């Protein structure tokens, strides 16, 4: 009988966990396919990027929501170094509520939209906000589906680059797995296309290391996930802090909100949050590949090891480090082939296998169905966020003071089907948002 993440296939289907697990373990195949697709469009990509690099004072905005925003945040620093341009990462959920905070000046803009479906209200409205406020706008679409409104509306327009992501990336499960790592892969390859051969070798090595993880290390993940925890603390430095945030999101989603978790930067942990180790806590470290950063992180690991009390410590790194091994309960190290990874944004693919598999197995341990997040038949949460109705601001080309005022609320039986609406107005730009619980 075939096993997936160490679980029998028929058992996964019985508990509604098959699709999440099969999509999760299929990621290495998607990575290799993604590299191939990028290679087939290499000249087109290089031409577009050369044009962007030649534009004086170009600002680059990376925009997404949820896991897509975290993917954008992970690559932000690397893109800034590669392009040597001003790069801003903004969650679309923040952007649409107060665009004056982010879109300042009249410099040319490259808007990079990260998304799974391309159908979220915030993502679509973010594009319109930039179109209204930017005199010279270019777009790069990193979207997992070509069937969404984002790609249909903008994908073929002049000044827009869209390279299809491998079919099958956007899966049936609610929680994003491949939809998360493929966004990171495409962002790295598109902005760093001149190093295509490096990435081709990187993902060949990563796929081999992934196979070893699924074959051997997955049973260590079972051992960790089968223990009860009052909370889970996930730690990472710089770009890896956003991977820690993604792990917490996955834990929350896949356990149906039953498992508490929190994320911090590694050094921030000693500034108060470490007190959670007084209770039964799982502390997971995502170690940087940067030697200086790792020295700080190992120092924090030693401190946690000395003060662990009832806690369990998990360490994740690329290369084996004996000093790390000596101060944790479980240790995952991935780089079996000694590949020279250049940046922390390049190691998140393998680290994601630990965070995703743990989150799935923790859900199974708690009796939650990973594919449906337990009893989610009433649509308590949705794969594509819903319930936001955006009514455009009347923007006059200059920033105006923004003040929030509570207008009114009432229960409306028609035509709003008995739902409770809360209305807020931003005085000064007349923007009204309706939110539907």
Q: Regarding quaternary structure, how should these chains be classified?
A: single chain
User: Strand content of the residues, in percent?
Assistant: 15-25%
Quote the average pLDDT: 88
> What is the approximate shape?
globular
Number of helices: 14
- Ends apart, CA distance between termini: 44 Å
Radius of gyration: 22 Å
Helix/strand class = alpha/beta
Contiguous uncertain segments of 5+ residues: 398-437
Largest sheet: 5 strands, parallel
> Strands across the major sheet, in which order?
4-3-5-6-7
Number of E-type strands? 16
In helices, the fraction of residues equals 40-55%
Topology pattern, helix = H, strand = E = EEHHHHEHEHEHEHEHHEHEEHEHEHEEEE
Describe this structure in words.
The structure is a single chain. This protein is of the alpha/beta class. It has a domain at 388-435. The protein is built from 14 helices and 16 strands. The strands form 4 sheets. It has a 5-stranded parallel beta sheet with strand order 4-3-5-6-7, sandwiched between helices. The protein has a 5-stranded parallel beta sheet with strand order 9-8-10-11-12, sandwiched between helices. Strands 13-16-15-14 form a 4-stranded antiparallel beta sheet. Strand 8, helix 11 (239-254) and strand 9 (261-264) form a beta-alpha-beta unit. Helix 2 packs antiparallel against helix 14, helix 3 packs antiparallel against helix 10 (196-225) and helix 5 packs antiparallel against helix 11 (239-254). The protein is globular. The two termini are 44 Å apart. Residues 398-437 have low confidence and may be disordered.
């Amino acid at each position: 009988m075939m096993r997936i993440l160490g679980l029998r296939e028929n058992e996964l289907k019985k508990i509604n966990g098959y699709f999440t697990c099969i999509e999760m373990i299929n990621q290495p195949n998607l990575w290799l396919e993604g590299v191939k697709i990028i290679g087939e469009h290499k000249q087109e990509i290089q031409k577009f990027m050369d044009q962007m690099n030649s534009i004086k004072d170009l600002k680059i905005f990376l925009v997404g929501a949820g896991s897509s925003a975290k993917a954008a945040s992970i690559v932000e620093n690397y893109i800034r170094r590669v392009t040597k341009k001003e790069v801003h990462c903004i969650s679309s959920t923040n952007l649409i509520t107060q665009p004056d905070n982010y879109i300042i000046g009249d410099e040319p803009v490259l808007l990079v939209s990260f998304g799974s479906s391309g159908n979220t209200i915030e993502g679509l409205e973010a594009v319109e906000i930039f179109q209204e406020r930017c005199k010279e706008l270019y777009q790069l679409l990193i979207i997992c589906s070509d069937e969404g409104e984002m790609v249909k509306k903008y994908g073929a327009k002049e000044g827009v680059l869209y390279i299809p992501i491998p079919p099958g990336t956007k899966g049936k499960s609610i929680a994003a797995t491949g939809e998360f790592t493929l966004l990171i892969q495409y962002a790295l390859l598109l902005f760093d296309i001149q190093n295509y051969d490096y990435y081709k070798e990187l993902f060949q090595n990563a796929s081999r290391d992934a196979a070893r993880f699924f074959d051997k290390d997955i049973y260590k993940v079972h051992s960790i996930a089968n223990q009860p925890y009052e909370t889970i603390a996930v730690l990472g430095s710089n770009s890896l802090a956003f991977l820690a945030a993604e792990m917490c999101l996955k834990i929350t989603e896949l356990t149906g909100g039953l498992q508490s978790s929190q994320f911090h930067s590694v050094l921030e942990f000693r500034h108060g949050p470490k007190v959670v180790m007084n209770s039964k806590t799982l502390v997971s470290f995502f170690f940087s590949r940067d030697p200086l950063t790792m020295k700080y992180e190992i120092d924090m690991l030693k401190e946690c090891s000395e003060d662990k009390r009832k806690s369990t410590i998990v360490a994740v790194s690329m290369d084996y480090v004996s000093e790390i091994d000596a101060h944790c309960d479980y240790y995952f190290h991935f780089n079996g082939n000694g590949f020279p990874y250049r940046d922390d944004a390049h190691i998140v693919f393998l680290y994601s296998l630990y965070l995703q598999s743990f989150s799935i197995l923790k859900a199974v341990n708690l009796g939650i169905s990973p594919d449906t997040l337990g009893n989610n038949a009433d649509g308590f949460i949705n794969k594509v966020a819903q319930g936001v109705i955006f009514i455009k601001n009347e923007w006059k080309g200059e920033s105006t003071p923004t003040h929030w005022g509570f207008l009114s609320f009432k229960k409306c039986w028609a035509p709003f089907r008995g739902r409770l609406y809360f209305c807020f107005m931003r005085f000064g730009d007349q923007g009204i948002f309706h939110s539907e619980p």
